[in-house]
Amino acid sequence: LKKENDRFVEDRRLEFRIGVNIGDVVHDGDRIYGDGVNIAARIEGLAEPGGVCVSRNAYDHIKKKLGFEYKYLGEKPVKNIDEPVRIYKVLMADENARKLIGDVRKPVAKNWIWVTVVVAAMVIASAGILIYQNLSKPELEPASVENQNLSKPELEPASVEKMAFPLPEKPSIAVLPFVNLSDDPKQEYFVDGMTEDLITDLSKLSGLFVIARNSVFTYKGKPVKVKQVAQELAVKYVLEGSVRRVGDQVRINVQLINAITGGHLWAERYDGSLEDVFALQDQVTEQIVAALAVNLTDEEEAQQTRHDTDNPDAHDAYLQGWAHYRLSTLKDLARAIPFFEEAIRLDPDYAQTHAALAALYWDVFKNDWAFDLDMPSFRAEAFANDHLEQALKTPTPLAHVVQSLMFAALGFHTEAVEEAEKAVALDPNDATAIAGLAHALVFADRPGEGLTFIQDALRLDPHHPPSYLIILGAAQFGVENYEAAVATFERAVKRNPENEKPLIYLASSYGHLSRMRDAEDTIETANDLRATFGLGGALSLERAGPSGFSPFTGEIDFASFGIKSAQSRLRAGLSDIPALTWQYLITVYFVVGQQNARYEIYGGTEIDLATAKSFHDKGVGFIDTASEALWKKGRVPGALNLPSQRDVDDPTEKRFRETTLSEIVDKSEEVVFYWWAPGWYDSGVLTWVAAKAVNWGYQKVYYFHGGTPVWKEAGYPIEKGEGGG
User: Rounded CA gap, 440 and 434, in Å?
Assistant: First the structure.
């Protein structure tokens, strides 16, 4: 154009201003539109007549490829675009080629294979120039669903006001699970692994806010809208895409969406072989970084193309193992092991796989699953330590998290905090690592610091696992905000009703708030849970001694709740709960030569069968504490049923609690308890029931042994079925 203008006098020349941007465009017949076009048009307005200005996105692609000098003009606010755009002026001179003048920022180095879309907007016309370099293999020719990713209309924008949380100050992004377009559904692990790898790569960048894998995968396989995702996770950008694998050929389609405007920032397709998978992932990451104008530290820039392994087959084996490990069942842990071992065979220095095996064997050890894997418990612990030692030679966040958990279990809380801090330093967006640091801080009785970190983890992972609520509640409990702790632990119990720890915390929180009936009921719920899983007796503040009620008690493991000061706070809230102190009303007498021990209850009275019949004849209330099924088979006439233990088949049935007993009999009235059958176990359960009633304040507690069978043998009438009391 300049050469052409030189042929004319000044008033006959056509001086063009040109703006160049790279981004997604939407085709509508002969029209193109979208943020990519809008930015190009605004940049054109900033150029001088006869000059060219380019956006940062375009500059990153061409800065080392064309013989031009560029001048950085700064960040310029442009109409209808949320954030300022960095502008570069192209200097039409051959000297100082590829040099940059005026940019105080360290540019992000990129090496691109494809240029997707260049849009040039001029004074008198706009033109869309599409440049593709097609490197696809014949067997990966695009299907129609894949091509849809390359041009989509603008979406319904998300509302900032309706977002679940305030938007972070830094660019925020959610990477939705990629869709598996392979003909083989067994490639799901590979597609999920690609998504996870991308999340991991992005989350290591301190300039980004990246939603955790756990939360984005709740949308997997669901027809959700970008608007919904953005509002529920409170992010500005959403990345979605698909992966197709045919043999060793891979195609990735990706598009980045500004959810606030509903516009597509860019869409791209990447083709390559399995050996190129790491390079393909790097390209996606780099383009996101460029599109969101993320400033990288020197260390982050150096790590962008650094991987845990350079062996794609080892990585593939790791992904298959990781897919099983994440399911967390015993069977899936067993299935994960051979894949992880294969990955290490292919690459003995694969640190992330060593860390995964360390985590797996530690899970097996702490959950007492070693026997199920045909190994002794000490062997599982040894394997965990051996693999962790290998993993820490090239540390990953997961390795430091596992080390932190091990230190905490051994009571080395200061060291546990230090290891968790190292994990967070390596990956500032890793919600699991951040939650692990919060956990370590709470156990070290630094709950205020722990509260800050667990809140960060909850923000990064809005659809968080139940364990995060336990850490949050423990931090609130530690700073003595018991009202908040109650609300959190109640949520934790609903999310995971089979976990004993939040029930104990919840009971202590109630105790600190003097809500003793709620505290009592919570401990009884924990006792029901223990009975269901055969954990060896009702909870107690301390295990009773040789003369105490030892067969049916289980001391609370206070050491598992942190250091001494944290334990004292927990014990203080539990100390006045009747469900934890009734055991001390019982004395057990063992007589040499006799099979059954004899129990005495302070405040309760054992009666013989004849006395029990006289109590029944004068209208004293009888409580049958056997299961409902046994109660229906036969009972003392008029006896009401309050089972002493949880019925696994019907956990909602009314059971023997202070609340349920108070609905039947007043604490000043006489009451008689019995269970089903004679024998040692009958004596134990019946003594337990009577002692609890005494501890609740009942003043006239009686009990007799043998239950319905001895009542029937004596010739007394029995009652069956639903009727009666």
Answer: 10
Predicted confidence at residue 85, as pLDDT, reads 86
Name the residue among 116, 108, 154 with its Cα closest to residue 263.
Answer: 154
Q: Are 340 and 321 in contact (CB under 8 A)?
A: yes
Distance, CA of 356 to CA of 351 (rounded, Å): 9
**Letter for the amino acid at 511?**
G
* Residues contacting 593, CB < 8 A, separation 6+: none
Helices (H), 447-561: 447-460, 466-478, 482-495, 500-512, 516-532
The answer for residues whose C-beta is within 8 angstroms of residue 709's C-beta and 6 or more apart is 676, 677, 678
DSSP 191-207: HHHHHHHHHHHHHT-TT
In three-state secondary structure terms, 555 is strand
Instruction: Give the Å distances, CA to CA, from 304 to 80, 275, 402, 467, 493.
Output: 32, 18, 24, 32, 41
Distance between start and end Cα atoms, the chain: 102
Q: Which residue has the tokens 């992005």?
A: 202
Q: Judge whether 578 and 657 are in contact, CB under 8 Å.
A: no
Q: What is the Cα–Cα distance from 456 to 559, expressed in whole angstroms? A: 27
More confident residue, 482 or 584: 482
Query: Is the CB of residue 366 less than 8 Å from the CB of residue 409?
Result: yes
Closest to 82 measured CA to CA, from 268, 292, 229: 292
Q: Report d(CA 220, CA 432) in Å as an integer.
A: 20
Tell the burial category of 90 from Cβ atoms under 10 Å away from its Cβ (0-12, 13-18, 19+): buried
Choice between 372 and 338, residue whose per-residue pLDDT is larger: 338
Quote the CA–CA distance of 72 and 329 in Å, as a whole number.
55
CB 621 within 8 A of CB 671: yes
Residue tagged 């809230």 (tokens): 573
Contact by Cβ (8 Å): 586, 637? no
| Other residues' Cβ atoms within 10 Å of the Cβ of residue 487 | 14
Average pLDDT of the chain is 82
Percent share of the chain, pLDDT over 70:
82
Q: How far is CA 13 from CA 7, 9, 137, in A?
A: 9, 7, 48
What are 447-500's pLDDT values in tens digits? 999 999 999 999 999 998 888 999 999 999 999 999 999 999 999 999 888 888
Calculate mean pLDDT across residues 89-94. 74
Residue 128, pLDDT score: 33
Question: 100 pLDDT band (50/70/90 cuts)?
Answer: low
Q: Residue 639's Cα: distance from chain center in Å?
A: 48
The greatest distance separating any two alpha carbons of the chain, rounded to the nearest whole angstrom, comes to 129
What six digits make up the tokens of 647?
């019925």
User: Which tokens in the block code for residue 336?
Assistant: 């994960």
**Distance, CA of 409 to CA of 530 (rounded, Å):** 22
| pTM of the complete model | 0.69
679: left (phi over 0), alpha (psi -120 to 50) or beta: left
